[in-house]
Amino acid sequence: QYEYNNITIKNAVTQFAPIDARWAFPCWDEPNYKSTFNVSFIAPYNAVTISNMPMISTINNDEFECLYTTRDGNTSTQCKQVFFAETPIMSAYIVFFGIGDYQSTSMIDSGGINQTAYFPWNFQPPEQYVQYGLNDSLQVLPYFGQLFNQSFPLPKMDSISITQYKFGAMENYGAITYRLDLFVVEPELESIDWLNTVSRVIGHEIAHQWFGNL
User: Fold this and answer.
1) Which residues, other chains included, contact 73 with Cβ-Cβ below 8 Å and sequence gap of 6+?
2) For helices 126-147 and 192-207, angle between their N-to-C axes, nearest 10 degrees
3) In the chain, N or C terminus with fewer CB closer than 10 Å?
4) Which residues lie below 8 Å from residue 159, measured CB to CB, with a gap of 6+?
């Protein structure tokens, strides 16, 4: 969670590695056993929803109550069910669900992949804080595709910056999660050493999209 204009914004994200996917859905929760996944879940109506693949449809859901307060202070119990495109064959531990109130910035990289950075609303203006990390991702993802002679097989790459995240980062397929300070930075105020650390982490997680995720 994070604070924005004296309002507590609550988000929910998954961290299935190493063996916690089994708590969310029935699966062979072992990296060597792979499958395709058709992800769907119920979320607050006004929340941003993220998974490994692009969302393809959403419907209202009146069966449950989803109590949620947005950054504007509006509280609702309305729910929606979201559906995402089927994933390629992959391990269960890199499946990702994300629900929350995030702002986002998107750009298309040189390989034609839509890359989106999600991050808390209290970083304004957004380009001041996420451009460094997003630029790294925009350069590294197509670079690895050329280096390995195998294009990134998903249609999008999301970078989700998380507060109160004890892991440094996680290579969820097409939806990488980062500890907030490992993606959201002000380059003019950071040391060269820390900016190099941020770049190394981003490169490391993107490399996993081939080494580990395929």
Assistant:
1) 5, 7
2) 50
3) N
4) 115, 116, 117, 118, 133, 134, 137, 176, 178, 183, 202
Whether 171 sits among the annotated catalytic residues: the reply is no
For tokens 């959201």, what's the residue? 184
Radius of gyration of the chain (CA): 17
pTM passes above 0.90: yes
Catalytic site residue from 63, 127, 186, 205: 205
Of the candidates 119, 103, 98, 102, the one whose C-alpha atom is nearest the C-alpha of residue 12 is 98
What pairs with residue 59 in β-bridges?
81
pLDDT in tens, 166-190: 899 999 999 999 999 999 999 999 9
pLDDT in tens, 74-131: 999 999 999 999 999 999 999 999 999 999 999 999 999 999 999 999 999 988 999 9
